[in-house]
Every structure is written in C-alpha cells, then in structure tokens.
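The instructor's notes for this session suggest beginning with a concrete chain rather than abstract definitions. Hand out the sequence below and ask the class to guess, before any prediction is shown, which regions might be ordered.
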Amino acid sequence: MLELGYDPSSFWEQRIVWGDHDAFQHVNNVRYVRFLESSRIEWMVSLGKEIGGASRADDMLAGRGISLILKTISIDYKRPVVYPDMLLIAHKPHPGPLVSTSDVHKTEFGQCRFPKTHFHLMDAIYSYAQRRIVTECDEVLVWYDYEKLAKCDPGEEARAALQRRMFLTQEPNAYE
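After discussion, reveal the predicted structure:
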C-alpha cells in the first residue's frame, strides 16, 4: 500500500469473522461499508490531530466546529472475501475522480487544482489471504461547519495538512 501512495496513517486491519458472511458464502457487501467507515474515522482522527492536536480530533469526531462528512461512496468489488482472512484498508486523498489505484501515478495528478470545500478519498482493501487488492472505493468528503450547518473552506492549516497527505513526498500548491 505504501508503494501505491496510500497514507500510512490510514492503515487499518480488519479481521474477518464468520458472522461477516451472508447467504452467498462470502463477506456481505454492506460489511465493506462498515470496514471503510471505521478506517476512515481513524484516518480523520489522525488528520484532526495533525491540524490541531487531540482536542481538534475530538471536536471533529463530535461534530463540533469544522469536520468532515461523507457525501458519496462508490465501491468496486473485485474479488469475494471469505473467512478466515485479515484485510488491510488504506486511504489516499486525491483531486478526483479516479478510476483505480493505478491512476494515482499519472503525471497530471500533481497538476490538478482542488476544490476548497471537498476532496476525494481513494480507498483500497487488501486481503492477506489472497495477497491482492480485493476492493477499491472512491469517496467524496466535504468540509462541514456544524455551527453554520453548511459546507465550508476549512482554512489554510487544514488544507495544507490534507495536501501533504495527498502528495506525501511532493509539495505542489494545488489550492490556489
């Protein structure tokens, strides 16, 4: 996942339990949404801590001040997963829209301008048992001001933190 540019602060391991199965003998599709949610929340906590410490992360989780909300989610199930297995879930913010994980390496990726009120989050779910990515997802997250009940610009510090996570090693200024 590191080689594909995923944010290491987002890595989340999810153990598959027997109860994750459905009548079709594989992990139910709805379970993936839960796995992605748990992982995304942990990633959001790490982003909040980077922006303003533990109290900022707590505020983001409680919906106080400016936080993030999920606008859309699109999931591409590539292979079924069965018990027993352990999944590694990872996220990478990007300018959107992308078709697959391999798109993050395109040269024009670093030359995009990003909206100030929202961003895309590319997710990948890797199966340890199958030794491959079994699911990819693209989400749109919106910066949301819970006092005004409206989308918003989160400010320079939040945009800078997000941009560092988008490019990990590069430092282009896409928010202009």
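Then share the key points. The first helix runs from residue 29 to 62. Helices lie at 29-62, 156-167.
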